[in-house]
Structure formats: C-alpha cells, structure tokens
Amino acid sequence: MTDFCYQSEAYARALHHGETANFPYAQSGWIRRPIPGSTLFDGMGTYPLMCCGDWSRLGDDLAALEGGIVSFAAVIDPLGDYDEAVLRAAFPDLLFPYKQHYTVDLTRPLAETVSKHHKYYARRALREFRVELSETPTDHAESWVSLYSELMERNQITGAAAFSPASLKAQLGVPGIQVYCAYEGETIVGIQLWVVQGSAAYYHLSASSQRGYERSVAYALVWKALENLQASGVTLANLGGGAGVNTGSAGLTEFKSGWSDGQRTAWFGGRILDRERYPLLSASTPSNTPFFPLYRAHLAG
Questions:
Q1: Is the full-model pTM beyond 0.90?
Q2: Count of beta carbons in the 10 Å neighbourhood of residue 83
Q3: Which end of the chain is more exposed for a tag (fewer CB within 10 A), N or C?
Q4: Homologous superfamily assigned to 108-234
C-alpha cells in the first residue's frame, strides 16, 4: 500500500468516519460505514477527496465489494491520472462534475500567479506573524484542536468536516501531512495543514484564533506554504473548491481564486452494489432527491 497520504489507510483511519479498508488494485484507503436503521453497510472515499494509485483498477475493486456493501460514493481527486471513461466504468450509476478546484502552477513565480490583493494581505500578515513549518506536528495537538474547535463554532461547521478532537490529533501524525504554524510572539494564532503526494500538494485544513482571523493570518500561512512547497520541488498545488456544492460561498471562493492560475474538476461518483437492498432502503425518499445514496439524504447537513 502506498504511503501517499490521501491514498493511505492511515489517513482514512485518522478521519474516524468509520471502519477502514484498502482497495488493493486501485491503491486507496476507503471507509465502511453502518447504514442507520439497518444491519447493512455502505462505502465512501475519504474526505475531502478519494485518491488512487491506479485509477484503471478502481472498477475492479468496486466490483469485488458487490454483495457486502450496498453502495459506494466518492469525491474524486481532480489531479488524478484518469479520463472520463475510466470514471464511468467505475461509477456507472452516477457521475457528475461536482466542484471546480483552484490550482497553482508552482513552476511559475508566485508573484505571477497571486493576485495583487492577496500579495498585499500576505505581506501585511507576514510583518505581524512568524510562520514556521513544524518538524514535530503532534506537539501542536492541543493548539490545533482549540483553533479548529473555534473555527467550527464560528462557521457552524457540520458534516464530514466537523472532526472530533481525537481525529484532529490523529491527522497531525499521518505521513505526508505538513503543518504550518503562525506565531505572534510565542503564541500560535493559526495552523494550516497541507498534504504532499509526490509532485502535488493539497490545501487540507486551516484554522486561526479570533486575533489571527481579524488580522488575515491565513494569507501569511498560504504564502509561506506555497513558497516552501515550491522550493521542495512540488509543481502543482490544489487549493480545493468553495464551501457547498458547485460555486460555494463567495468569501472562500474569492480567497482560493486569488492564489490560483488554473482550475481542475472534482467529480462525484456513485455506484449501487446491492441492487435488491438499495431500493428498499431508499423507498421513503423521493427518487428525484439530488443526493447519493438516496437513503442517506435525511442525514445530510
């Protein structure tokens, strides 16, 4: 099994979203979840993206689940090595463009890709805060839990991104995760997590104190992270999409787009594996409900 972070079972396990397993051919960790109100299970890719070492074999791995898992759903890595035909073979029941992710070509100077607005706020924040790449990420567990809990309360975060303290701590120890800390004096006012996989990097999670939030510390964190990733040989950074489906919130979209010089499509895929039980579980949900799997629609949000 690869050590690439988003592909690894270690990362899937750190999310605390359910029982973890591996796809042996596609080389990806995934999560097995009990279906509420039943004795059955379904599967999902990891949050925020499912990454595979060999996308051409994902359909084989999913087919091998038939009979044991009712359905499988995933948001697909927009940087993956696949074409649409490969995805449709793996997800014959549902496949659609889910979000546009903002990317940064790190073979170019940051001064050419970053907007004037973002360069101004990054310079200002870097005059106030010191940003360091941590050599011992787990040492910052308590600060990280405190900052992220503050973020969840401030933004009323629910769903897959509402991580438990145990999950937040576990994620710091997964190989491939880089942790950047912003200091005011000796006080941490912001922490940002990035995932590095070969020549690509992914903006993972970020949180700051009220002081850091008011003084735009996130700009200093992203600038320093991109500088460091560029210097280490990473050639493409994925900043993710906005909040929600499609365009997302204006604030988050503007923040990410201001660093970016490109976009990639993240697809959503769904596959029904147990065609007898799926309609029985979904019987109480209108068939035109835009959610997959249907039987989980009432749990969304």
A1: yes
A2: 10
A3: C
A4: Gcn5-related N-acetyltransferase (GNAT) (3.40.630.30)
